[in-house]
Amino acid sequence: MSPHEPQTLSQDTAFDLLSNARRRFVLRRLQQQRGGIELSDLAEELAAEENGLAPPELSAQQRKRTYVSLYQTHIPKLADANVVRYDSETGMVYSTRHVDELAQYFEDEREPIPWQLIYASVAVVGLAGYLFSSLLDFSVVRPEYVAVVILVGLVLVSVLHYAYANRLLTNSATIPLENDSNHNE
Description:
Blueprint: H1 11-18, H2 21-32, E1 37-38, H3 39-51, H4 60-80, E2 84-87, E3 92-95, H5 98-103, H6 115-136, H7 143-169
Antiparallel strand pairs: 1-3, 2-3
Helix pairs in contact: 3-4, 6-7
């Protein structure tokens, strides 16, 4: 990432990029094939999809029309937004982290986990255990041990919270195609 590349795409940029079915097709294919795709293969797949034909049935004109559209308009627009990287020498198109960021616009809303209640519960139970062990003066359950258990509990909840938040940032939502009703496969 260059120093001038924004951390996240603006909502206007995201909506503009996602407003075109051809760009959504490219983005979805890049989600499916992380190692990159040749532009000619993308054009052939897209032409087949748009014309309702198998790739071998496509005419040279159908392939060329789609290739030129991708090459001159859609790939440069995606590359300018740093969503894809195009290697003109090899003809390969590669995704960047922004592809998953765009896919988040299609993620189904989930019930949020009440993390503040989980942290508070660990703290309250820990405090009660600490007070109980301090007042009863058990030799087995010393207040220092309870404090360590509380600390470990809070660290575990923090790690779980972090993992959950990062899983949401790299979601499993897929960018839908034009008539794709089941967009979260």
